[in-house]
């Protein structure tokens, strides 16, 4: 990313944006419009809401954790009436519950869904949920911040209207960019959407995209990095990228169970990008994470929201070599006994 | 910026954010709270509006060009009633006109001002305008995206309540970060401010800043670059940085006039970061910029908004060596005759 910055109104930038947009569409598996925004994933989620709804609109929010709650909160802050479809923490959303909620609430304009819930390590069955939402004729808005580029999400095949991702996840580049795809049906909703917006106005992004520019100054250095990582993804092949995530995730889950830890996620919906393990009785998460960080240079995630102090989370998204995952197991084998838990196989 | 990304919830990030916040406060010359947002300057401007006003509020917007108009538009999009105090393009705002507008509109809650208008190359007399605004007891919100770090703006001495800057300008790092300072009076306004916000909610930023974190994932790579450039600014000394901009600006203005071009800005308010020169009769800006870019590798700015096709703009903000400015003059001496204007001293 150390290249000399260049003018974002010049031909070099236009070529870069054109290349990135086409490359991203391949990974999104979409022919829809796609925009790159300078913001983190949460800003992308805001863009995915405020451009398509109006204050007072009734929105269904499928939430199975912290990031689902965040999506619902954004809609509420901008004036929507939000009905939440929840699941027990560690479980995926039930597509039948979504169908029922849509029947009970025929005035719903659209549905917000988290594809991959990072706070619990659960991947929703988006294909099944999407089928229900589109059968009911509603707008489908997907938070794919922590899934796209790592998990299969064929945007067009599943008929997702608005899909948002973020640069620091499966794309393997530093945080600072969000990407949003927009279907024709979403554009039709946009024409009537009255939520307040300026920086995140995708109508502006659309106008400038016609000449491969952005309305506001873009984070060029991160776009240059994305250019490199998209080439790496294309070279490997996206199906191979998905398979690699599956393999590393299987290895992570097995290794954690072998240590005697129980996993939070229902096995049939366990995420291939992050795994949450329950803390054994008496083990303080904060202490464990500190020993791992200070003595083993291993950084794991803590529990968020209601799971604070109850779980640890191992990320395995983007490029994670086998040695890194094995290093996590080795560190846990040494660190756990220091905080009051003797792992299986350790004397 | 090629460092390995690190966890934004860990101690390394907290130390970085603490160091950047203190370093930025020195350049802002403020003891107010200060936050770093992952967005471009326009997002920072949105944050500076939506956190301090409510829909229906009457706001005065001092606009002398494209960026002033943008500030006013943001306030309107989020439901404010905006009264504009304008000036002729190329002129600075008249502090007496601001005083009069405040007298005529006693219900005004706050005033938006652009410190340095990049589209015309004019720097407003912010000190005098601030005096009028604070004498009237109104909230003062300043767009310093293209001035802070290059031009003197003592935030506390001039009693500016909210001041926003952007990383790609005087800070000499890539675009992607905005910085916003918030006074106690602004926080009091925030408590009653009802404009819709989520990603740009500074109340969230304040909560997380208590442990030197950000509510959403930050653009770490650009923060690492800013860490380096703040050390460079501190080493040079900010008064020396301002003096250097003055000297390079004087040289730019003299060089352009020596070529026989007339400058757009009123000399007493000419910006020390960007200079706009009027295109001579018959010269097409687009053609001139193309010759400069293709044959001389020199990228100048075009006119924006109503000045499209009427001016060219030479940027001299951040670290601009004398040779770069001399290179611009040399390129113009060769390029101008090709598009129909023989500069002074060229046969």
What does this structure look like?
Two copies of one chain form a homodimer. With 347 residues, the first copy, chain A, is of the alpha/beta class. Chain A has eleven helices and twelve strands. Helices cover 41% and strands 16% of the residues of chain A. Chain A has a seven-stranded mixed beta sheet with strand order 1-9-8-7-4-2-3, with helices on both faces.
**N-to-C terminal Cα separation of chain A, in Å?**
47 Å
Overall geometry of chain A: globular
Total DSSP helices of chain A: 11
Uncertain runs of chain A: none
Average the pLDDT over all residues of chain A and give the rounded result: 94
Strand content of chain A: 15-25%
Report the sheet with the most strands of chain A, covering strand number, pairing sense and barrel closure: 7 strands, mixed
Task: Give the quaternary arrangement of the chains.
Answer: homodimer
Major interchain interface with per-chain residue totals: A-B, 46 and 47 residues
Record field, number of beta strands of chain A? 12
